[in-house]
Fold Beta-ureidopropionase.
Amino acid sequence: MSACEFESLEKSLESHLPEAELAEVKRLLFGRETPKLALPSCAVEAAAERRFELKGYTFDAAQEQLRPPRRVRVGLVQHRIVLPTDAPILDQVGATHSRVGEIVEVAAMCGVNVICFQETWTMPFAFCTREKEPWTEFAESAEEGNTTRFCQELAKKYNMVVISPILEREELHSTLWNTAVVISNSGSVLGKSRKNHIPRVGDFNESTYYMEGDTGHTVFQTQFGKLAVNICYGRHHPLNWFMYSMNGAEIIFNPSATVGALSEPMWPIEARNAAIANHCFTCAINRVGTEHFKSEFTSGDGKKAHHDFGHFYGSSYVAGPDGSRTPGLSRTRDGLLVVELDLNLNRQVSDKWSFKMTGRYAEYAEKLGEAVRPDFKPKLIKE
Ligand SMILES: NC(=O)NCCC(=O)O
C-alpha cells in the first residue's frame, strides 16, 4: 500500500486491535477521551451523499460554580482540489466554492459556530512550481474579493464565523500575502491575519510569491470566543503560538498545506504541544490529495524533475489544553470535523498547571533581547 492510499492510523488501529487494548492505545496516543458528538441524521446522510467524511467529538470541562459552560462548535474543512490545475482559473475557484459550500451547509446542520478552511483553499498549492503565472492570478482582495463575498454570504446565512485563508492581493502596495480573512457571523469582515513565517524547505519555497506578514499576532474577539490564525509553517515556531496566546487567543487555528514526506511525523505533535504550552485549543487543518502540474519542476534535492510534490495527508484534528486531542480526519478523503469545546477548560488547566504563571517571561524577554544582539556571547562553559 502506498502512503497516499493509507487511510488513517486510527482506522488501522481500530481494525487490528482488540477492544480493551485499543482503549489503552487510544489513551496513550490521544489522552483523555474526547467522546463522540451526536450529529443529526440529516447531516450524516448529506455527508455520505456528498462523499465526504464527517466526524464529531466533544471536549468537556468541569462544572464551575461561578461561570456557566462556554460551549462552542468549531468546524474544520479539508478537501482536495476539484478541477485539474490547468483548468481556467475562474472555473477552478467556482468549483471549489461549490464543493466547500456544500460542506459548510452540513456544518450548519451540525450547529457549527466557527468554521475554518485549509491554507489558500481556493487554489492548487502551486508554489512548488516556482512559476508565477497563472498562480498569482488566484490572488484576491481580502476585503472585496469574490471569495470573501462568497464567505460573507455563508457567514450571514448560517450565523457562523468563517475563517478563509487565501492568497491576498493588496492593490495599494502591489503586494501579495498569505492571509486568513476572518468574517464575523454578522457577515462583516472582522479583519485579517497574515502568515508570519515563510517556509524555505523542500518544495515549500514560497518567499518569491508573498511577503512575511505584517499583522503581528492579532486576535479576533467574536461571539464564539477569541480566535487567532497561525498559518501553516508558523506552527513550527513556538513563539508564534505563544504571542497569539499572550494576546488572549482561546482557539488558535492552523490552516495548512503540507505533504507526508516532509512533515507527517511532526503533524500530530506541534499543534497539540501548542495547546498544552499555551492553555488553549488548537485546530490543525491540512488539505488532501496529490496535485499534478503540467510543467515539470525539480525540488533542489538532486532528484529528477516531476509533476507533483507529494501527497497532502489531511489528518485534521483538534487539540485541547489538557493534552488530549481528537482522532484525525482521514489522510485521503475530503472531510468535516465538528468539535464542541467548552472554553472553560482553558482556565481550568491553567489553574492546574500554571505554565503562564510560572513561565518567568520577563527574564526570558531580557535574555532573548541579549541573545539576538550581534555582540552576544553564548553562556557556555568549557573544560
Ligand atoms: N504551506 C506551508 O507553509 N508549508 C510548509 C510545510 C510545513 O510547514 O509542513
